[in-house]
Every structure is written in C-alpha cells, then in structure tokens.
Amino acid sequence: MSALKLERGASSHSAYDLRDYHAAGEERHTLAVIVDNEAGALARVIGLFSGRGYNIDSLTVAEVDHTGHRSRITLVTRGTPAVIEQIKAQLGRIVPVHEVHDLTVEGPAVERELGLFKVMGGGEKRVEALRISDIFRAKVVDSTLESFVFEITGTPEKLDAFADLMRPLGLAEVARTGVAALSRGR
C-alpha cells in the first residue's frame, strides 16, 4: 500500500486522483494480467511501461492461484486506443505473462479500492468529518483526541470525492491500495 502526505495547499492532482486530467483522445483502461508468481515478473511488466514512457495510474498485485503459482496484476493506465492496443500486445509477449484482459472493453466490470484517510482536527471540523464519513459509509478504524483514521471501500471516484470533502477538514495522510477489478457475469 502506498502512502501520500498531504500538505496545506497541496494540489488535488495526485497519483491517487484517477479523474481525467489528461490529454484529449486518451482513454482510461483497466488491465488484468495473469503472470507466473516468480521473482522479476512484476519488474518485467513495470519495465515495459517505464521503458516506453507509459504511465500506470494504479497497480495491485497478489497471488491468485497457489497451486499454479500465478499472480494477477491489475493496472489502470491511460492512452489513445492505438497506445492501449500496443500495451496489450507488448504485455502478451513478455515471458511470464499468461493472459492479458482489457476489462474496459471486455464488458461490464466491478472496480473497488480500499483507502485509509487520516483527518486531524477538533471541534466542529471533527463533527463534520464524522458526519461525512457516515454518508460515505466509511468506518472509523482509529481515533485519538486529535485525529481519526477512516477506512473506505468503493470506486476510485468515491475515494476521490471523500478526499475532496475531507481536505478542508484536516486531511493529513492518505493510503490507497489501488484498483482491484473483475469482469461481471460470465
């Protein structure tokens, strides 16, 4: 899990803000890549992106088949349709890669992300933070006299909206898991 410290006046355009601030013609795509669970597999996938100047907006990795020793890499990236096709083709040629799925074009998919948000403050701001957390169905997982840590699960846009509302109330630190996604139905 990655963490990001927020300073007063910090830009809301962070690596964790998955809203579209990019060039026209670019599309957001969620890719699921099944790889051998071996040393260097993730590095090869990441190397493809960094070596060609592609950005990864979100990245999650976990072993999903213990007996077959396979891991699933779920990543969110942006690019023109031609760039996305090139990324998928190049991913398919990497040795430990078994499958590449573009969940964005294969049909409806479910995307979720877990976020932890530390909010510092007291008085009315503290009460308002609790009220907003209730609306978003965020759980308080830690509380001190000076701070709360909220846990929230949902779409990246939901977490972005929660962060936007907590920022003026004393949002001090954020940790987000990145997108986990599965196609719906068959």
TrEMBL record:
Pfam families attached to this UniProt entry: ACT_AHAS_ss, ALS_ss_C
Species, as recorded: Paracoccus niistensis
Keyword Transferase: yes
Family membership noted in the UniProt record: Belongs to the acetolactate synthase small subunit family.
Gene name for this UniProt entry: ilvN
Pathway: Amino-acid biosynthesis; L-valine biosynthesis; L-valine from pyruvate: step 1/4; Amino-acid biosynthesis; L-isoleucine biosynthesis; L-isoleucine from 2-oxobutanoate: step 1/4
Record's protein name: Acetolactate synthase small subunit
Domain ACT: 30-105
Higher taxonomy: Bacteria, Pseudomonadati, Pseudomonadota, Alphaproteobacteria, Rhodobacterales
Catalysis performed (reactions): 2 pyruvate + H(+) = (2S)-2-acetolactate + CO2
GO molecular function: acetolactate synthase activity
Enzyme class: transferase
Family annotation (InterPro entries): Acetalactate_synth_ssu (IPR004789), Acetolactate_synth/TF_NikR_C (IPR027271), Acetolactate_synth_ssu_C (IPR019455), ACT-like_dom_sf (IPR045865), ACT_dom (IPR002912), AHAS_ACT (IPR039557), AHAS_small-like_ACT (IPR054480)
